[in-house]
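Q&A log
Question type: sequence-to-structure
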Amino acid sequence: MAFAVELRLARFDLRAEARLEGGVTAIMGPSGSGKTSLLEVLAGLRRGARGRVAIGGEVVLDTERGVRLPPERRRVGYVPQDAALLPHLTAFGNVRFGARGDRARVDSAIETLELAPLLERYPLSLSGGEKQRVALARALASDPRLLLLDEPLAALDVALRERILPYLLRIRDEWRVPALYVTHNVGEALALADRVLLLRDGAVEALGAPLDLLATPGLAEAAAAGIENLLQGRVSSHDEAGGVTRVVLDGGAEVAIPLARERLVGTPVVLAVRAEDVLVTTGAIAGLSARNVLPARVLSLERTGPDVTLRCATDGGTPPWLVRLTPAAVAALGLRPGATVSLAVKSHSVRVV
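Response status: OK
Response body:
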């Protein structure tokens, strides 16, 4: 697909352009950068949009030529964050509502999302994860040329996200429908996406492979509210008794992660650590349960909403670490650029992506 669109918004003008070659594209960026608005323009849901959009080889918007197909003719499967199920229909009724007269496709969507036990239930009786599965099945049953998924996991807790993610992977691998996937979660982007499009103030700031893009200093900070550190390395050993696997990071530092027997020694891995899971100390470390402690130096401090985000360089040669602290913690520790600190991370806060 390809698009070059403009839309006047309250704080800025959306001016986004990209050509995408199938697969899954994760759309990331700070809150309020125009991600949802872009999806709505592509779906035909926003009046006043100008430019050109081509989906599956068909031009669905070309304002210079007077082409503006309505949403129902664009063959786009749209899944908003709140699922938007019809409350008066059962789960089956919702899935069938989006179908184009093809019962076999409805059955396939139900099978993919494992909805058989839920078909006679109404939305009010469904959990958040179940609602999203129904919404995804409805989108697939519509025989889409493009899926537009607007943070489908954002409203779910961590446990539910981990249960729904395999369904998204199955949709990607079995249905092979091109998709745009809005997310603030770096781990989701790494797991699902073939590429990441980074949007800032309505403009495309970067487009590239997930690991290359999100490991670039400065871009990871902009990519998500739930900032994560991405670390590349290789499995060095498994400690069955201690319940950990050790990974040597590019640059030489070693970290412990929860035991991962399925990862063979010597194989490359990518690790993710949330910024809020990194502990900071300026003094001697004693009596701390965290297994991973890295000497570091504070490069910068930036206020991000109610918190402060630190960029810290470690001796291990990894990209700068991102650490999120409260202003009170920053003041209590006396942190400033150039300060010497230690970063501590519990092994269970490190996950393989």
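Response note: The chain has two domains: 2-226, 229-352.
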